[in-house]
Design goal:
Keywords: Cell shape, Cell wall biogenesis/degradation, Hydrolase, Peptidoglycan synthesis, Signal. Belongs to the peptidase S11 family. It comes from Stentor coeruleus. With 238 residues, the protein is α+β, with helices and mostly antiparallel strands. The protein has one domain: DD-peptidase/beta-lactamase superfamily (Beta-lactamase, 3-Layer(aba) Sandwich). It is built from 8 helices and 9 strands. The strands form 4 sheets. The protein has a 3-stranded antiparallel sheet, sandwiched between helices. The protein has a two-stranded antiparallel sheet with strand order 1-4. Strand 5 and strand 6 form a beta hairpin. Helix 1 runs parallel beside helix 4, helix 1 runs parallel beside helix 6 and helix 4 packs across helix 5. It is globular. It starts with 15 loop residues before the first strand and ends with a helix.
Length: 238
């Protein structure tokens, strides 16, 4: 991960939708805003908006009016792949950036980070990865993005966590505990993260790390094939 050496590739510069692998950049953007620009903290409380709660696709099961910390939201983003968590984080941190539209502000910051990480083929148009033509990347850039994110200790801790229980304050003041499980099945086989994804257009996707190797698979044949393919590629490059 530190040398960025390409050990093997196939069509690694082919532009594709990357589904929820987008959330690697969403998480990275939040963490760098906190750690590098001092815009908020992991303990900030976010109140879930109606638009966040109603976001379609994979969900952290957040409800309108819920109050939850940034730290817990990041787990809700990366473990169950919550699109609701992605939008809530983008809304919250986008308000801290310059510009009239919080979501657009946050997406601009995501794309600024693409330049910093030298992701030359990547453009983001939303924080969650639901199908949009302009939300494009390639396998090589996803590996570089993941490598950059894995340099952050907070990111490494989150994506290596198998289960996490968050404390959420409901709109009526009731406290509820919500447990999320990581969608990355390879955590049980010695891998240390990072993210899964799937949409109809993107197909099954996976970016996962094993020791100092990062494997990215886009548009795998099936949900199960991506696990097998990742293990084979790691064995070949040990």
């Amino acid at each position: 991960m530190s040398t960025s050496t390409i050990l093997g590739s196939k069509r690694d510069l082919e532009l594709r939708e990357i589904a929820s692998l987008t959330k690697i950049m969403t998480s990275y953007t939040v963490l760098t805003l906190i750690e590098n620009k001092m815009l908020g903290s992991m303990n900030d409380i976010i109140k879930i908006s109606k638009s966040s709660a109603n976001t379609t696709g994979t969900s952290a099961d957040l409800l309108e009016g819920d109050e939850i910390t940034v730290r817990d939201l990041l787990y809700g983003l990366m473990l169950p792949s919550g699109n609701d968590a992605a939008l809530a984080l983008a809304e919250h941190f986008g308000k801290k950036l310059q510009g009239p539209n919080p979501i657009s502000n946050f997406i601009d910051e995501m794309n600024n980070n693409c330049k910093i990480l030298k992701l030359f083929y990547t453009t983001f148009a939303n924080p969650h990865g639901l199908a949009i033509k302009r939300n494009l990347s390639c396998a090589r850039d996803v590996c570089k993005m993941a490598s950059g994110a894995m340099k952050l200790m907070s990111f490494r801790i989150i994506v290596s966590t198998k289960t996490y229980t968050a404390c959420i304050k409901s709109n009526d003041g009731e406290i509820r505990m919500k447990t999320w499980e990581n969608t990355n099945k390879l955590l049980n086989k010695g891998f240390s993260g990072i993210k899964t994804g799937v949409t109809n257009k993107a197909g099954p996707c996976l970016c996962s790390s094993y020791e100092n190797v990062i494997v990215t698979l886009l548009n795998s044949k099936s949900m199960e094939d991506r696990w097998r393919e990742a293990e084979i590629l790691v064995r070949l490059n040990k």
